[in-house]
Amino acid sequence: xxxxxxxxxxxxxxxxxxxxxxxxxxxxxxxxxxxxxxxxxxxxxxxxxxxxxxxxxxxxxxxxxxxxxxxxxxxxxxxxxxxxxxxxxxxxxxxxxxxxxxxxxxxxxxxxxxxxxxxxxxxxxxxxxxxxxxxxxxxxxxxxxxxxxxxxxxxxxxxxxxxxxxxxxxxxxxxxxxxxxxxxxxxxxxxxxxxxxxxxxxxxxxxxxxxxxxxxx
Length: 217
Ligand SMILES: [Zn+2]
What we know:
This protein is α/β, with parallel strands linked by helices. The protein has a single domain (5-215), classed as Rossmann fold (3-Layer(aba) Sandwich). The chain is 44% helix and 12% strand. A 5-stranded parallel sheet has the order 3-2-1-4-5, sandwiched between helices. β1, α1 and β2 (29-36) form a beta-alpha-beta unit. α6 packs across α8 (200-215). The chain is globular and about 50 Å long. The structure holds zinc ion. Residues 187-189, 191, 195-196, 198-199, 201-202 line the site of zinc ion.
């Protein structure tokens, strides 16, 4: 792997930034791809850009706003503003199979930039439980991508079986604990680093960090 090139699916959040550090350790060359699909805080894209710049990796931003055409609200009403979900709910823009689409585009990009490896921060232990984030799906898509392009991609999911505390532990092992804590955006309210402290994403992130810090004592 040390001599190979990888592309990391990258949102600028805790998970994908940890994956980026993992990739930088394991591959000779790393590029990242961010999917811009409109409903995210513009700040999230900016945050991803800054991290990519700081770590000196080439950053591809793909406009996936077409997904909004398939969002539940857009299908039923065209006069509803696209909103983030209420606490704990899926955003109104959530589209089933989204990760299928994103990973497929990551595969096309990987083929074009000559990357054999695709790294994604999807996780089965995650509360979301989207079917296209599960291990069996990712393995199945890996086969499909290889058949579709007659290539031999390897999809890596370093976070698949670990919880939030273990994700912090991994960041720490990679020497990136402070970087991930200070530069990434997880908060639904768009506040970088430790966030608003109130939203479900912030609570999950903080609980994980506290559990990890506790385990060191
Ligand atoms: Zn928050």
